[in-house]
Amino acid sequence: MNRLVLVAAIVIGCLVMVPAQAHERNDGGYYTIVDELGRPVFMTGWKVNVGDQCLTTDNKRYEVTGISGDTAHAKFIGEVNLSAYAPSAPVRNHAFAVHLAPRVASAQGNKVAIYHTHSDESYVPTDGKESILGNGGIFKVGQAFGEALKAQGLQPIISNAKHDPHDNMAYERSRRTVADLLKQQPAAVFDVHRDALPAEGYATKINGQEMTKVQLVVGKYGPTGKQIEDYALKIKAAADQKHPGLIKGIFFAKGGDYNQDLHPRSMLLEVGSHTNSRAEAEKGIALFADAIPAVLGQTGGQPGTPAGATGLGTQQAGPSGASKSIGWIVALLVIGVIAFLFISTGGVKEAGAKLKRFTTTEFANFLGPKIGRKQRRDDRDDEGDDSR
What we know:
This protein is α/β, with parallel strands linked by helices and about 400 residues long. It has helices spanning about 1-15, 95-100, 125, 140-150, 170-180, 225-240, 280-290, 290-295, 320-345, 350-385, and strands spanning about 30-35, 40-45, 55, 60-70, 70-80, 110-115, 155-160, 190-195, 205, 210, 215-220, 245-255, 265-275.
């Protein structure tokens, strides 16, 4: 009997530890999230649960408090100030960093991994149907993303691994793909999807071109949820600077992780909907790529620029955080020595004289024994050569 109770406890414990994944709806419907006054603020094809949150295009954050049919009721939490997450302006080189910068490599590298958990997802106006097993139109959107990243001086690593069928186990299958991609040590990982909304949910016009918006999805389950959330806010802040209105918003799924626990810069993207054309999705993801160099701490490259040539830690982009820290340490050390000499001697002239004595007499005395020992060894070697 005791053994039976123990087994039951273990089974229940395992079930509790398994995340209640919040995946997309599979009934062809979608949710409209409304505020306290019943005004629509967000739409998503994801399965919405109480406690999920969303950030709108204009940075207003809501939390779902109840669900009635296809309507999710939410309370307004507040407006997020994304300026705190925006990429900082480039820092100019200073005297110490100029010498240190060439020795400092890019902190994260310039590789960006791209894959597709739902490899069947397609765009009806272009592909003819919303799902094509093993050859979804989403692959071409991922390819367009990679080409745009390459034009920015980054190195895309694209996986065309298939994870069909489109079910709740797809993320388990794609987890192996992520593990393989991580062997190449990418600076960021993107799982590229498309949503399931009416076309107007994603359609937009930027710079005179029709395209789709991009939505970010954050899995809040697990210990890395807050880290991924901050990363998503950084992405939106950078994209808002480059192309305001391109990011549809962020959906925070309380019960999902979506393999985002495997890498600190892992993000799930929804690029348009099945009702938008793939060409519009490709234009949207190409503009989205403009924001990625800033998010990764690198300056944006131009077509033809060698990958990483303007990366963090080079003279073109300014010193990295490491080189700046070392520079400040050296500077403070020099200032501290000068201040000590001034205080201990009482004047600039006396401090200069003491410093001169140190560099000539005391420093020479410190090196003298070592030099003397080396000279004696050399003399013995010469005597040995003469005797031979």
